[in-house]
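User: Structure please.
Assistant: Input sequence and predicted structure:
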Amino acid sequence: MFRRMLIGLLLVGFLPAVRAEAPKTHKASQKWALLIGINDYTYLSKLKFCAADMQALRGQLLEAGFVDAQIRLVSDKEADRKYWPSKTNIETQVDLVCRLAEEGDVILLAYSGHGVERRGQGYLCPQDAKIDSAGESLIPVDWIYTRLGKSKAALRLMVVDACREELDPNSTRGADDVAEANKRFVKQLNSVPKGTVLLNSCGPDEFAREDKNLSHGVFSHFLLKGLAGEADENADGIVTVGELAKFTARETRNYVALKFASAQFPYIKQDADIGALDYDLGRVKKQTAPVKPAGPKVGDTITNSFGQKFTFIPSGEFLMGDGESVDDLLKAFPGAEKDLLERAAKQHRVRITKPFYLGVHHVTKGDFARFVSQEGYKTDVEKDDKGGMGVDAAGNIEQKREYTWRNPSFIQGDDNPVVNGSWNDDVA
């Protein structure tokens, strides 16, 4: 599920003269784009959809009104060697685009590849990156910020789709270690300088997801759809920075919650005048009516490709705990352990900080069988020589290698709950 780390940077600067309360759209004089996509790393884990993300973005920018001569694509799929994504080539192109932009222009710099944090510094990883030689082979995020800050461009927006999986194919780090490394990288990315707007694909405690059915990162997929016109909420034929950010954040959040039963919350961060959000990023065919926000509400349900139904759970608070006395619970459940009942009886307030989708019914054996067939998945129990838990002829609980979700030691139909699964299997 975590196929790669993708970072999409759309970097656009603004003039401080833009008033925060001004509702009108700001049109750039010229728009420049540098698109960098890296799949085939020499020393790091290879990625799948980075080049496709950037190639698709180039096409969408042309549709939105960017001039072909002012778009540069740097990718390991390019035939011309000067557009291969080496450290030298990337830095050369960044410098060039920043020099070409004049006052009133927009610079769009999109990077799709690995990102990393080392010794308190965030880095982008060119194709020839070596993690142990950060100063020599990596590109500091601060260096990108500095170069863009020196340009004459009127608008700088940084859109980041990042934090997917382990960089080093030989690493033995666990998921918690990878998550912590991603968190540090996002922290460095959030050090947004004055005059820059950041739209990040996920929070510091989250992973940015890819979906092979989309052939893109989820965030990048909806970024493309937004630029194509779906983000034009007021149906004026213009997609602004603010509209694109709102649409992409909402659709990414909803899709990831449904498809992966996980949280991915894109967010916007800026040390800039709010008028930057009114800048024109692209012209599209006018809608016949304003696009209505598709945000879910309480009671809404959705059904996935396996036929499972999910209901929307909003953020909020509730009171957890039975509220009955422990003595009453002991009478009702005479065989229960007292300490468990004490915890169950004690009421306490629980806060849900982020909305999510919850399965209306349990995952059945049939549901899980369809998932395994489609994804080629093997559970932890099937990969472990110890096997899962089951019941012998005498009714004793035991662990045997042959006990799996397919054979839990008792007869199950496809409508029964799947058993002998681990936490890893639950979130797969």
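The radius of gyration is 25 Å.
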